[in-house]
């Protein structure tokens, strides 16, 4: 079997694609926390998450509903998303609200009206 040449740049692109895919799965699946070591192309005074640069320190909430800690040598992020709340599935439906990183429970017949539910926020 012949080995194919692989540049470090293409390995970086593959890793970045993998990280974005895993990040999406974590975001959509309420799968807890992830950590990543610093990459050479990251800015010296920050971390890169899903292509966006964040400063060193605590990040209360990213646009993809993570709470993160950006440090000199790594970044650790935990999903803010929770399981959908308990609600009446016959009369109501759940809609994820990316602005609040929470679920809105609304009536199926009239989505402008909320349903009673047990809900938590990050």
From TrEMBL:
Keywords: Disulfide bond, Membrane, Secreted, Transmembrane, Transmembrane helix. Its main location: secreted. It holds the Pfam family PSP94. The chain crosses the membrane at residues 14-35. The keyword Nucleotide-binding does not apply. It comes from the Eukaryota. InterPro entries: PSP94. Belongs to the beta-microseminoprotein family. This is Beta-microseminoprotein. The gene is LOC101815407.
């Amino acid at each position: 079997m012949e080995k194919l040449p692989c540049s470090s740049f293409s390995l970086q692109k593959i890793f970045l694609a993998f990280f974005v895919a895993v990040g999406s799965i974590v975001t959509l699946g309420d799968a807890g926390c992830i950590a990543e070591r610093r990459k050479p192309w990251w800015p010296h005074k920050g971390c890169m998450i899903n292509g966006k640069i964040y400063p060193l320190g605590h990040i209360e909430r990213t646009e993809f509903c993570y709470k993160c800690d950006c440090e000199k040598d790594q970044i650790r992020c935990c999903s803010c998303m929770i399981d959908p709340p308990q609600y009446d599935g016959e009369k109501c439906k759940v809609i994820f609200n990316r602005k609040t990183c929470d679920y809105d429970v609304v009536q199926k017949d009239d989505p402008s009206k909320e349903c009673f539910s047990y809900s938590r926020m990050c």
